[in-house]
Design a protein that fits this description.
heterodimer, A: alpha+beta, three-stranded antiparallel sheet, globular, B: 894 residues, alpha+beta, 5 domains, 23 strands
Chain lengths: 118, 894
């Protein structure tokens, strides 16, 4: 059935979680389908192959307390489950954003053309 | 912190599952609808819109599955689900479930019980500190190291003074019964003389008071006693002031100086109530009936101690100028005292293990058959997406449930069983008076083993099926003929093994039955239907003289004879089977002695009416009568064995027999006697025994302080006993009656050991038979079920029902017969191997079987017939179903 190896899956899940939090921060409360579309658009159709993989990630975020969910109505009056960023989620998002920036800064220094001694 | 929250959330997800399932479905559905709407808006057709939405979502079921895995604790939930399902499956097959659980319980219970008995009787250490360092010290004959010899005073002293391998040495006598009078009441209790060093050797300090002082261990100053803890509690009500008080033992005053610890228990001897100093008789050369125990010094081995004591012994013998025909013997105390019982116990353990084996084979077959029958089911589930671990987990759940059920039942059976063993086996049969408690280690081991085997049997089919080509299995349908053949072969082989083992057990049961019947019918040589017997041992200075003894017993018997409805009263120093026989050594006057110690005989000193009262037949000459008074010439009767041993084919009447003095034990010779008659033999100790030589002498010429009295009367026992007690008390209230039994009880007790053996082996054989029939029934039934379709076709094509029937049973029957043949061979082989160990030779002493040969044809024939009948029935009943198959139903049967 094509399972991804475990560690890769975890990394992917982590990245996906971050994207979800960011999406919710910028878009406000959104349903699952909406989040999936938005991530696809933002990443340029590169990342989210299966919309289905989103839902376990959403569940995990809810279990960790970073998002909360609530049934509501969409524009077309369709019943859908909306996800919202919690305060803890906001804090986690800030933390992870800072960590990413730090990581990329270190890497940038590492990978940049080195200052020659000469 | 986050992880904890996550974990709790996942745990909590176990509850309210249905609601969440519903929510998930709703969310998925809503997602799809939103996507479809978008697709419609971008111009797709409705069907295309839906298809694209579904594709983009990914596998719906897979998504749900991933979600579920995230949500709950999937492993826990899976196990819970599997157990639930497994229990339902098992409930739907009550026959199978019951048989497996029952078999498992039987195996666990029986094995636990027997090992508990073995542990408590043979392996459990004695209740003393560091008890494995305790050794029994004795003297053996050089030419026959299995025979113990006497320990003389000098050797005892030499060992005590000179040894340097034992850290302490103690000595004691066998606890004999004495009359204890205290607080106005008399009873018979066991009194054990021992040295104060014994307390030190066993490392059991007294609870109160003191042990014996050195001066108290000499003659004349030894009238001090230590109470056992039990008697202090029961008889003296734990009165702490009892120390310093006096009590009377056999008419002599003793002062209580101490109270023993409750830990002082001699499990392999009758429990003593009192301890008195062991005092060597200065006039005698030997310590009578002395046993010595020692504690090995640090780092000393048994052999080292033995060598040391032996060198001391040899030096001593040399110094005394005695012949060096003895060796010192040192052996582990526990092993020495349990050796006697070890053999029959191990035999029964072996028999139980046989039954266990049959049970295991049965279970293995059942589980295997069932596993194979469900291969198709496993294949189907694998196709639907169950992984290998899923399938294995499912079968494990079933096996675990079965194991738990079987294990619980087995534990209860084991507890009950060990209790029954303990209760049934009396004091005489079991060597150690310990509690037969359930040994935890054994139970754990057996439980573990059975769970392991059950799991193995349950998992193997799942393992096999997951490798099998799914396609093949599904296409084959329910019959699966070609692979089926090897499966059936295995099944039938298991049947053969079961039948073989069952035959061995049945044969054994037959042997024991034969043996028991022969024992019951063995001629006892005496009888007194309904008679009551009891013993009195006269103690005290009032009865030291023979005249006093005679006078007492005469008065007693006269009084009892005058009671109403008493028909006959007789007296002897012992009666057959009551265990109080006396011994002596004789030579024929005028003939050269047969060996230097004379011929050993049993002596009964009896009243003139003894023979008539006990219906002992007189073969030649005359019986004893009142004219054989103390002043008349000394006479005796001998039994047929003695006549043969002493005189061969000569006529013994009129010949004279001389007593042989026992110089080693300092027993002087009595005056010679003349033989006046020959009696028939009687059983002395039980049916299976060597032939004993017996002489009967008149009580008036050979009085003794102890006697057994037999009363024949048609009074009810209670009334009779009361009247007798009153008569005895009126004569002297300090001489109690004891060992009160009816003659039938006496005879019954001599058979009790073999009766128990028979019941045990019989039960095992019955269980084996039941298991075998179930096994065969199951095999044939399964076989028939698998080939129902084929049988239906055959019947439709014109085969006779008989033909089909034969086809159905032939496999099982053939294997059954093969198993039977093997069983006969194994039984005979086992008989040969064990023969000498079980002493199957008739009349050999201390054997388990009496009067049957190991090739006993009757037992073997009966066992074979019984097994064949069972085989036939167990196979025939399910096979009949094969005949009755409706072809139309069979053809449609899948």
């Amino acid at each position: 059935m094509g399972d991804k190896p475990a560690d890769k899956k975890d990394v992917w899940q982590g990245t996906l979680a971050l994207m979800v939090l960011k999406t919710l921060q910028s878009m406000g409360p959104l349903h699952g389908y909406g989040i999936a579309r938005r991530i696809e658009q933002t990443s340029g159709d590169l990342l989210l192959v299966n919309y289905g993989t989103l839902y376990p990630a959403l569940l995990r975020l809810e279990q960790e307390g970073y998002v909360s969910s609530e049934w509501g109505f969409s524009d077309n009056n369709r019943k859908a489950k909306y996800y919202k960023l919690t305060r803890a989620g906001r804090k986690q998002l800030n933390k992870e954003e800072r960590e990413w920036e730090q990581t990329t800064a270190i890497l940038a220094r590492f990978l940049a053309p080195g200052e020659e001694r000469s | 912190m986050r992880r904890l929250r996550t974990w709790f959330s996942r745990l909590g997800a176990g509850f309210g599952r249905r609601r969440r399932e519903g929510e998930l479905s709703a969310e998925m559905e809503s997602h799809l609808q939103l996507h479809i709407e978008d697709n419609l808006r971008s111009g797709m057709t409705p069907s295309e819109a839906r298809r694209q939405a579904l594709l983009k979502l990914g596998g719906l079921e897979q998504t749900k599955e991933d979600y579920r895995e995230r949500r709950g604790l999937p492993l826990l939930e899976a196990w819970w689900r599997d157990f639930h399902f497994a229990s339902r499956v098992l409930r739907k097959n009550p026959g199978f479930t019951c048989v497996v659980v029952f078999t498992l319980a039987l195996g666990i219970g029986a094995t636990t019980a027997i090992f508990s008995v073995l542990e408590s009787q043979l392996w459990r250490p004695l209740p003393f500190l560091d008890s494995e360092r305790l050794v029994d010290v004795h003297v053996v004959l050089r030419k026959n190291p299995r025979q113990w010899d006497v320990i003389t005073n000098s050797v005892c002293r030499a060992w005590a003074e000179q040894n340097h391998t034992l850290s302490s040495l103690g000595a004691y006598n066998f606890p004999l019964s004495r009359n204890l009078t205290a607080g106005g009441r008399s009873e018979r209790v066991r009194v054990m003389p021992l040295t104060s060093s014994t307390f030190k050797t066993l490392d059991v300090p007294l609870e109160r008071g003191r042990t014996f002082l050195p001066e108290e261990e000499t003659a004349g100053r030894d009238h001090v006693a230590i109470l056992s803890h039990e008697v202090w509690q029961t008889r003296f009500a734990s009165d702490t002031n009892v120390i310093g008080k006096a009590l009377t033992i056999d008419g002599e005053l003793y002062v209580v100086v101490g109270i023993a610890s409750p830990r002082l228990r001699f499990e392999y001897l009758p429990e003593p109530a009192l301890f008195v100093p062991l005092v060597p008789d200065p006039a005698a050369k030997v310590m009578r009936g002395i046993y010595m125990i020692g504690r090995l010094g640090p780092g000393v081995s048994v052999e080292g101690a033995r060598a040391d004591l032996d060198s001391i012994l040899q030096r001593q013998l040399q110094a005394e100028g005695a012949k060096q025909e003895d060796l010192a013997g040192v052996s582990n105390l526990r092993v020495t005292w349990t050796e006697y019982s070890a053999r029959p116990l191990y035999f029964f353990a072996g028999a139980i293990l046989l039954v266990l084996l049959i049970a295991c084979v049965n279970n293995a077959g059942l589980l295997l058959a069932r596993g194979l029958a469900r291969q198709r089911e496993f294949a189907l589930r694998a196709t639907l997406g169950a992984s290998r671990s899923n399938l294995i987990r499912q079968s494990s759940a079933e096996s675990l449930l079965l194991s738990v059920a079987g294990g619980t039942a087995g534990t209860m059976l084991g507890i009950w069983g060990s209790g029954v063993f303990g209760g049934f086996w009396s004091e005489d049969t079991l060597p150690r008076h310990t509690e037969i408690s359930l040994d935890g280690r054994v139970l754990l081991f057996v439980l573990g083993a059975s769970i392991f085997s059950a799991l193995l049997m349950g998992i193997l089919p799942a393992l096999f099926s997951s490798r099998v080509d799914l396609n093949e299995t599904l296409r084959k349908g329910a019959s699966g003929l070609s692979a089926g053949r090897s499966q059936h072969r295995t099944r039938n082989l298991l049947v053969a093994v079961e039948v073989c083992l069952a035959l061995v057990l049945l044969f054994g049961a037959g042997l024991f039955l034969s043996s028991f019947i022969r024992e019951k019918q063995a001629p006892r040589g005496f009888d007194a239907p309904g008679a009551l017997t009891f013993r009195i041992s006269l103690r005290g200075e009032n009865y030291a003289q023979p005249d006093q003894q005679k006078r007492y017993f005469r008065s007693l018997t006269d009084q009892i004879r005058s009671l109403p409805r008493v028909q006959e009263v007789t007296l002897g120093t012992g009666i057959p089977l009551d265990g109080s026989q006396l011994f002596a050594s004789l030579n024929v006057a005028g003939h050269p002695p047969r060996n230097e110690h004379g011929t050993g005989v049993i002596v009964y000193s009896v009243e003139p009416n003894f023979l008539q009262a006990l219906h002992i037949q007189l073969l030649a000459g005359r019986g004893l009568d009142p004219r054989d008074t103390e002043t008349a010439p000394r006479v005796a009767l001998i039994n047929r064995n003695a006549a043969h041993t002493l005189f061969g084919s000569e006529d013994p009447v009129g010949k004279v027999l001389e007593y042989v003095a026992d110089k080693r034990r300092d027993v002087p010779a009595k005056a010679p006697v003349q033989v006046v008659g020959v009696t028939e033999n009687t059983q002395e100790f039980g049916p299976s025994e060597v032939a004993f030589d017996v002489i009967y002498v008149p009580f008036s010429q050979n009085p003794d302080q102890g006697a057994s009295i037999v009363v024949s009367s048609n009074l009810p026992r209670g009334a009779l006993l009361g009247a007798i007690r009153d008569a005895a008390y009126s004569l002297d209230k300090d001489q109690p009656l004891y060992d009160v039994k009816t003659l039938d009880q006496l005879i019954g007790e001599s058979l009790r050991g073999s009766q128990f053996d028979l019941i045990l082996v019989g039960c095992l054989a019955a269980v084996a038979l039941a298991l075998v029939s179930v096994g065969i029934f199951g095999t044939v039934a399964y076989f028939v079920q698998q080939r129902t379709q084929e049988f239906g076709i055959r019947l439709a094509l014109g085969a006779t029902p008989g033909h089909v029937l034969r086809e159905a049973i032939s496999g099982a029957y053939t294997m059954g017969l093969v198993g039977l043949a093997f069983g006969v061979a194994v039984a005979l082989a086992l008989g040969r191997i064990l023969g000498s160990a079980l002493y199957l030779v008739p009349h050999e002493h201390s054997g388990m079987l009496f009067g049957v040969k190991i090739y006993d044809a009757t037992s073997m024939t009966v066992a074979c017939i019984v097994l064949l009948v069972v085989l036939f029935l167990a196979g025939f009943v399910p096979a009949r179903r094969a005949m009755r198959v409706d072809p139309m139903v069979a053809l449609r049967y899948e």
